[in-house]
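We emphasize that the prediction below concerns an isolated chain of 277 residues; any contacts that depend on oligomerization or on bound cofactors are therefore not represented. The input was used exactly as deposited, without trimming of termini.
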Amino acid sequence: MSAPPLIDRVTGSNFSYQHHALERCLDDMAALGRTKIELWGIAPHAHVPWMTDAEARGIRRSAAARGLEIACLTPEQVMYPVNIASPDARVRAASVSMFRRAAELAVELGAGMLFLTSGRGAEDEPREAAWTRAVDAVGEIAAYAARLGVDCVLEPLQRVESNLVNSAADAARMLDDVGAANLGVALDTVAAHAAGDTVDAYFAALGERVRHVHLIDGAPTGHLAWGDGILPLRDIADALARNGYAGLATVELFGDGSYALDPRPALERSLAAIAAL
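Result of the prediction step, given as a C-alpha cell string:
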C-alpha cells in the first residue's frame, strides 16, 4: 500500500508561535487542515521543567477539541543549559532528567514520539569523550521512554549547534552505539544540506530508521518557509517517496523575525507549496 500524499502527513506545530497563545496556534492548525501536531516544548506553551501532568492533559484536550492530536513532543534543547553531553556532570544530569520528564509528559499529551538531539562536547576536549557521554545519555532516555511506550527520534544538528551528530553517518553510528529499538532518526532537510548529505544518503545509511522529517527551506541554512530559501522541495519530496518514507513531516519555521510576528502566512505558503507537488 502506498503512503498517503506528503501534504496529508505534514503536521502542524507551534514553531514560530512563541509570541502567541497556544490556543491561537491550535486554531490556525485546525483551520489549515492539519490533524497532528509536533509540540515545541517552550514557555509559555509547554515548558517541560514546569509543566504538570494536568497541564499536559489540558493541552491534549484542547487539541482534541479541534480535531488535533499531539504526535511528537520536542523539548527546547539546543540552547544551554540543556546538554546531555556536557562535560559538567550537573548540567548533564539535569538535562537527562529533563528528557525523562519529557517522556512522562509525552504520555499525558498522547504523543508517541519524543524528539532528541545529541548535545555537544567542549570544543577543547577529545570528541570521543563527549560521544561516550551522549551515547550513555541517549541510551538512558530511550530506555526510560521505552518503558513508557514512547518512541524517540534523534536529529543531527548543524556543526554550529553540535560537534557530535551532524551527518547521516554520525546518526547511524550513534544509533548503532545506543542499540535501542525505539530510537530512530529525524531527517532535517537544512541540517542534511549543511552536512553535504542528501535524502538518498540518509536512507542509504539509515533505511527504515528514518522515522521523522523536518521539512524546511534554507538559504542555504535557516528555518525558512518554502520559497524563501534555495532548497529543492520537489527533489526532496521525490527522494522521500522513492525511499518509501511514509512518516510525518513538520515545517519547522523558526526565529524571531516576521514569522514569529505573524506565523500563519509563512506556514500557509509552505503548505501550498507542498500540496502543489
